[in-house]
Amino acid sequence: MKNKLANINSNNGRFIDGNPNTGTLGTIVTAEWLNGVQDRMQDVYEELRNVLLLGNLQPDGQRQNQVAEAIKAYCNNINLKVQSNTRNFDNYIPNSKKSNAINSNSADTVATSNAVKAAYDKGVEAKNIAEKAYKVDSTNQNKNLNGLLGQNTVFGIAGRNANVTGLGNIYNYGSGIAFSASSGNAMLYIPHSHKTVNHGVWVQSTFAGNNAEPVWRRIDGADFADIRDNPLTETGNTLKYRKRYIGVQVDSGAYGGLDITRSDSNGSWSSRFEALPDRKWKFWTNSDGKGFEQYLPAKNGTIILDVDADRDATPNQLVRRDGSGDVNGRLFRSTYQNQNTMSGAIAFRINNTGDNYTRYCDNPAAVRTWLGVDVIYQKIGNFEVRKYPDGTMIQTHVYEINDLTNWAERTFSWAVAFVASPLLFEKITTSATTDTIASANILSKSNATSVSYIFYERHAINQGKCRVQFLAIGRWK
Q1: 3-state SS string for 379-446
Q2: Residues ≥6 apart with Cβ < 8 Å to 55
Q3: How many CB atoms lie within 10 A of CB 252?
Q4: 129-162: per-residue pLDDT in tens?
Q5: By Cβ atoms counted within 10 A, which residue in 52, 67, 259, 374 is the most buried?
Q6: CATH class in words for 376-475
Q7: Whole-angstrom Cα distance, residue 410 to residue 445?
Q8: Residue 130 and residue 148: Cα distance in Å, rounded?
């Protein structure tokens, strides 16, 4: 057995806390001293293991009385031998065959009471050391449970910091065991559960070679209600679930839903109801190698059934066409809002039995013609156009100019072309009050679409502000 471990290297051989206010340093625990602790713990283990071997026992981590049992068995064995020797004086043990050694490998000597007492004392000492090394921890009841990882302790928890462990406030009370061996740390935690709530069984572990942060894992089956509550019952061909919701967890971008497969005399096919990644609902049926799909968008509203629509629609019903494509319902509101102008198109029916369509016309000219309107008037820039139902069109072109100094040829195009050259008239008014004559000479090259002309004036005086006017009478059809 190794010698007693030397005291820690400090002024008084005891551990002391540091004090930043005074500059006092805390005791430094060196690897040499910790290795010494480890060596002596392992030495004690080997010593205790030898004691177990005396009682023909092997170490069992689930028991804490093996050392005492081994010593008891060994003592009983010696006691039997003593009794046997007492009864048989011919087989007495000479003093030369007695030994006080407790570590002898001799098969020719027997242990004295002194040796047995020494072995027993060693066993008691080892038992005390083992109980101290693996003790019930009552100091961590209100501390972070993760801080116990790596220790050798049995612990109880009451009101611990649940947010740090990630198990939630419902696991604030429970008990467990933490143990460490061969660079591996593990912890088993059993929170308080009762008749209606099962909080499960949880484990957490780390290894010296893995820097990943330890996480809690539930090992009692899954995070669902205790199956002993029997939420599922089968009656005939019906499986009933007595809870409120059935949850399906789907990974990001994946699909999930309910599949139904049929196989009978009518054939085999599959139907599916699933939630899509774009938040739509999909109804799908695969029959005879053909897929039929219907989608419901992620919008507010009510699904309308075909029975909610009818040809003879009533209030709060949808209108549906019959086999001929007709409806028998009021399409216009009973009230209206007045408007000063009309836009869109005029609806009408062709008066024959072979045309079942409601037609529309958005050509104002055609509507006017059909209605027999007397005059169609248009103002287009400096042009005014008047069309008459008989095909006559009168068009004027008026503009203003300062003086008539430029006598070059001029041309303009009518806003609406005539079907043939119209009858033309011109008139120029000026600001001059004396000795003035001003006019425009219309050239013969003028036609149904344009007019060519040259200004004319006498004495070439300044005419001032002038108004040039053209009038044409012709036909638009």
Answers
A1: EECCEEEEECCCCEEEEEEEEEEECCCCCCCEEEECCCCCCCCCEEEEEEECCCCCCCCEEEEECCCC
A2: 66, 69, 70, 71, 72, 73, 74
A3: 5
A4: 655 544 455 554 445 566 677 777 777 777 655 4
A5: 67
A6: mainly beta
A7: 12
A8: 19
- The alpha carbon of 394 is separated from its chain's Cα centroid by a whole number of angstroms, namely 72
Per-residue DSSP letter, 95 = G
Encoded tokens for 457: 């004036």
Nearest to 289 by CA among 268, 266, 259: 268
User: Model's pTM, two decimal places?
Assistant: 0.28
DSSP 92: P
Q: What is the pLDDT of residue 373?
A: 67
Q: 123 to each of 34, 55, 75, 118, 365, how far by Cα in Å?
A: 24, 12, 12, 9, 121
Closest C-alpha to 146, from 136, 135, 157, 132: 157
Is the pLDDT at 168 greater than 70, yes or no?
no
Total length of the chain: 477
**What is the distance between the alpha carbons of residues 339 and 388, in angstroms, rounded to a whole number?**
27
Domain ranges of the chain: 31-133, 136-218, 342-373, 376-475
